[in-house]
Amino acid sequence: MSENASSPAATGIRSGHVEANGWQLAWEERGPRSGEPVLLIMGLGTQLLGWPEPFCDALAAAGYRVIRFDNRDIGLSDKWTRRGNQTDVRMAFLRSSFGLPVQAPYTLADMAADTAGLIDALDLAPAHLVGASMGGMIAQMVAADYPDRVRSLTSIMSTSGARSLPRGRLRVMMRMGSRPVSNDRAVIIEHLTTTMRMIGSPGMQNSREQWAELIGRGLDRSYHPAGTARQLLAILASGSRESLLRRIRVPSLVIHGDADPLVPLAHGRHTAACIPDARLWVVPGMGHDLPPPLHEELATGIADHASGAGLAAA
């Protein structure tokens, strides 16, 4: 494990790389080392920067040791370099819509094994898992398949993967399958900014200027669209988690916005219905993002859930 030893004194943030399941994963943490660990798992094609700083700071201020990391194939973590398995994403979408198997270089189960390995390498067990979108899918799988590593589960704007659930709005789904017309930095920022504005929370999300600044910061850190495509294949190849969700026994909270145009609220409701004794928190006006006006509210709700889980485990 490597760690940036100079950062704690300067910023209170510690960072480094750790080997997990054969991959070098980039991680960052804040908050007291003595606090119960909260591990944040981000979604499709999104670096650890996708967890907003005020949200992370609020969890740390509540006394938690807050860890966020880059999934494999994104950010500063290892990238897939093997040849083969270059499945066409559009064909994979088509096969998935008909319930046909999809070939992928790796699956969500592999990414869940990465997460379990990171928990072991950083000595976090048992950790409170908080996953957003694809990260929620990964967190669900870790809670079911590695229960000794998990203290509680929070699944945000995610899904059970059941084929019977409604799809997102057609215009949004088509947008998610599009790519920038060039690799020019300004073009990429404009494309991704428009995408985030389409899926974000109506009336309370970042402005275009704020999205552009955040996306630009991410581009300066890393840009790896091939990894996003492979992560999407991992989702499509993994299918439904309905039976897996029924095996989860840790205290579970499902958070979903009622204005999510990409993953409709029905997905959150079904996820909560599948997990024994899960609580569903429907957030009015929330889309497929973590909008600034909700940072404190979401952090407080997750901290309260984690605190309750700690009491239940005591």
CATH topology: Rossmann fold
Counting DSSP E segments of at least 2 residues, the number of strands comes to: 9
Radius of gyration: 18 Å
- Taking pLDDT < 50 over at least 5 consecutive residues as the criterion, the unreliable ranges are 5-11
Global geometry: globular
| Total of helices | 12
User: Average pLDDT, to the nearest integer?
Assistant: 92
Q: Compute the number of structural domains.
A: 1
Order of strands across the widest beta sheet?
Answer: 1-2-3-5-4-6-7-8-9
In the CATH hierarchy, what is the superfamily?
Alpha/Beta hydrolase fold, catalytic domain
Portion in helices: 40-55%
What structural category characterises the helix and strand content? Answer: alpha/beta
Order of helices and strands: EHEEEHEHHEHEHHHHHEHEH
This entry's quaternary arrangement is single chain
CATH class: Alpha Beta
Strand content: 15-25%
* End-to-end CA span: 31 Å
For the biggest sheet, the summary is: 9 strands, mixed
CATH architecture assignment? 3-Layer(aba) Sandwich
Organism: Spectribacter hydrogenoxidans
Protein name: Alpha/beta hydrolase
GO molecular function, one term: hydrolase activity
InterPro entries: AB_hydrolase, AB_hydrolase_1, AB_hydrolase_fold
